[in-house]
Design brief:
20 helices, binds adenosine-5'-diphosphate, globular, three-stranded antiparallel sheet
Length: 511
């Protein structure tokens, strides 16, 4: 194999470069869905040409976000290792120095080093140090300097064209909320992956990975012991779990024993707890993944509730303490008779799409679960009600009391219109959630940390969050929907829903 010359000892001190990281996805355990997503990227990176022929391009930037020690660096290295590409790493804090021009120059250096070994991977840890919001409060000084560096990153990322997109930039942060939205725009870090705390099963899997090079009396004893540790380590990160095993190994050696036993493991666990506080107050058993899904669901519902506020029914608070198929968001009681316009009905459909849309966005279309089902069926029923019972749509001015009023061709027309309203609602909802992605993540973080969030804090986060501009959403096209439904103009009237009915007329018998 060809050596990469100076790569090992890069010219610039702040860049660490590796020809091969030697890390694979097997080294990362728990949160299998993250690996599935990244595996796809590796496949695209490897068969660049084949995918390009099909018009599939690798994302230019992947942003990993989550608490320290959860394996973000490990994942970045695994991508490089699996794809067999050289790995260039730098830390965002290294870019920001007192001297003017250093940040931009270092960014340039990093990209040009990576480019000369392309295809390659760039990893920028703590990217928030350089990529925080522009124009915000200048904490720690160096604002102008940072801005130069950030602009340089944007320039570099926009610079490589699709045909020569041989550099994948991976960023890591635990402060998604302060990132400049420009970084998250399409063609930059447009793939955001949350790396969270492992579940109990995840913890066991991580312990298994780090127990590979450790000695236990037997395979069976090892499994029993690790299972026990996994149960006792709620809220521990992968790095902390690794520490426990290393510490247990050291204690074992100190006692001049050959095998790690229960006593050493528990002692190591206690030591780890002493250095890292853990939230033990949470005694109820809820799988971590479900908790994460609930938090995202509630965050999405909250953002939509801010975007389309309902003055008749203001929201109060939400939490992730109970698992129900309906969102947990609580509202104050409606007083008086609400005055609803068509847009109020439509907005409520858009809001009801939030659980399903966010779940697909975060976990993928093949990885949905039941917690968005209720809201989705509500959205669909509301659309039907709007069409059938309000007379506000192209369906007509007739009022249909129940389904049995519907003859077959009207059912087709209803379906076409409902389809159109749902299409619009889902698109609008995704557009809002993408625009406010940062607010969604921040609210999710608060929920995961505290278990609940009040309206005031939600509004606060929503108002301050950086927004990522989205293309406009095609409005409901009722005319198009009718054309799609079939021939409706057999009386020479092209828009039957809008024909003027004689007073007292009910129904569609003219068709
Ligand atoms: P981060 O970049 O998120 O702060 P790191 O990738 O530096 O975390 O994690 C530190 C170490 O902890 C890793 O090198 C690895 O040994 C261990 N670790 C963390 N998460 C995992 C995991 N999910 N599976 C296996 N090991 C892990």
């Amino acid at each position: 194999s060809d050596t990469l010359g100076s790569l090992g000892k890069s010219r610039a001190k702040f860049i660490s470069a590796e020809e091969t990281t030697g890390v694979t996805f097997d080294d990362f355990a728990g949160q299998e869905y993250i690996k599935l997503e990244l595996q796809e990227i590796v496949r695209i990176l490897k068969n660049d040409k084949e995918f390009q022929d099909k018009g599939i391009y690798c994302p230019k930037g992947v942003l990993l976000h989550g608490p320290p020690g959860t394996g973000k660096t490990l994942l970045a290295k695994a991508i490089a290792g699996e794809a067999g590409l050289p790995f260039f790493a730098a830390n965002g804090t290294d870019f920001v120095e007192m001297f003017v021009g250093v940040a931009a120059a270092r960014v340039k250096d990093l990209f040009s080093s990576a480019r000369s070994y392309a295809p390659s991977i760039i990893f920028i840890d703590e990217i928030d140090a350089i990529g925080s919001k522009r124009g915000g409060p200048d904490i720690g000084g160096g604002g102008a300097e940072r801005e130069q560096g950030l602009l340089q990153i944007l320039t570099e990322m926009d610079g490589f064209k699709e045909s020569t997109s041989q550099i994948l930039v991976i960023g890591a942060t635990n402060r998604l909320d302060i990132l400049d939205p420009a970084l998250l725009r399409k063609g930059r870090f447009d793939k955001i992956i949350r790396v969270g705390l492992p579940t109990k099963d995840g913890r066991l899997a991580i312990l298994q990975v780090h127990a590979r090079n450790k000695y236990f009396r037997s395979e069976m004893e090892k499994n029993v012991l690790l299972q026990e540790v996994a149960e006792l380590t709620e809220d521990f990160t992968g790095a902390e779990l690794q520490n426990i095993l290393n510490e247990a190994g050291i204690l074992t050696a100190r006692k001049d024993q050959d095998y790690i036993g229960r006593e050493e493991l528990l002692e190591a666990l206690e030591r780890q707890k002493g250095t890292f506080q853990t939230g033990q107050e949470d005694s109820e058993e809820m799988p971590e993944e479900l908790k994460l899904r609930l938090a995202y669901r509630e965050a999405a519902v909250a953002v939509l509730a801010c975007f389309y506020p309902d003055s008749h029914c203001p929201f109060v608070e939400t939490d992730i303490r109970s698992i129900r198929s309906k969102p947990n968001m609580r509202y104050t009681k409606v007083s008086g008779k609400p005055f609803l316009r068509k847009s109020d009905y439509v907005n409520s459909i858009v809001r009801a799409c939030a659980p399903r849309v966010i779940e697909e966005e975060i976990f993928g279309i093949d990885n949905l679960c039941w917690i968005s089902a209720k809201a989705t069926s509500e959205a669909s029923t509301s659309a039907e009600r709007l069409i059938l019972q309000t007379g506000m749509t192209a369906f007509g001015k007739a009022y249909y009391r129940n389904q049995s009023d519907l003859v077959l061709h009207l059912a087709a027309k209803l379906e076409a219109l409902r389809h159109e309203y749902m299409r619009f609602s889902v698109e609008k909802c995704s557009s809002v959630l993408r625009e406010y992605r940062s607010a969604v993540e921040t609210i999710t973080d608060v929920l995961l940390e505290k278990g609940e969030i009040k309206a005031k804090e939600i509004w606060d986060i929503y108002r301050k969050a950086p927004r990522i501009p989205q293309p406009p959403v095609h409005p409901v096209d009722e005319y198009g929907a009718l054309i799609y439904a079939g021939r409706w103009g057999n009386h020479g009237v092209s828009l039957p829903g809008r024909v003027t009915f004689a007073p007292g007329y009910v129904g569609f018998s003219t068709f």
